[in-house]
Amino acid sequence: MTSIGRMIMLEELFKEYIPLLDNELESIIAPKKMYQERLYESMKYSLFSGGKRLRPMLFLMSYTLFSNNLKIALPFAASIEMIHTYSLIHDDLPSMDNDDYRRGKLTSHKMFGESLAILTGDALFNLAYETILKLTMEINDYRVRRAGYEISKAAGYSGMILGQVIDTCEDELNSSEIMYMYSLKTAELIRASISTGAILGGANNEQILILDEFGKYLGISYQIQDDILDLDKDKEINKLTLSKYHSKDQLINLINESNEKCLNLLSQLDNLNTSFFEELVNKLAYRNI
Fold this sequence. Notes:
Belongs to the FPP/GGPP synthase family. By secondary structure, the chain is mostly helical. Helix content is 71%, strand content 1%.
């Protein structure tokens, strides 16, 4: 099959799954008690602000390699998007990156005030785990419990939050330390989205390990590409990025190395159709270069 054919398939997959994911998110956050409307509007504003839904889509792409039962998968995918959105809301706060705009729209704290923005992030984070824990009560399956554990670990103390802590520190970081920060702040949730999709779908341990490693390198490649896109933005001058130590050409070489590892890992999944992931490696890594 040609590259163009795979791209069309990938776009069709997004068109098919994103409306299902959006409906799931809308159902989960719908107000059910008095005085929830204000919080609901703030949550909906950030959840439906034009994001790519990359992480939950990676989860679904991995899951559907092994299973087609979306009834179980969609709540997990929605939880991943809620965790990601909470992290963006808090990342934009005045005490963090102090950003006024995201995706061309006012950030949550600029739109609703700092107090409600903090509570909105907290609510999304907690609602994600509430959704996952509800599944573990409804479905007595080790895979559901393991997937929930892996997501919580990736998003928390030793994962994404630790990466954010490193990003806010005032210490001078070298290139390898910045790469370590990337592996936590950005790549960890991408990695976990892919590996937990495989876990929930019923992959064997070898397949899970391969997809876990694939997700790690894909996440690193994605973050380095963000560095390249940010090179011409004045606001990024004082941020901790690899562009402080590497030229654009060197960053592209790092992406190429990471992509090669991604494709080599996918080639080890002999009996699975990984064409969606193969196309995504190139689609994500070379966007807008």
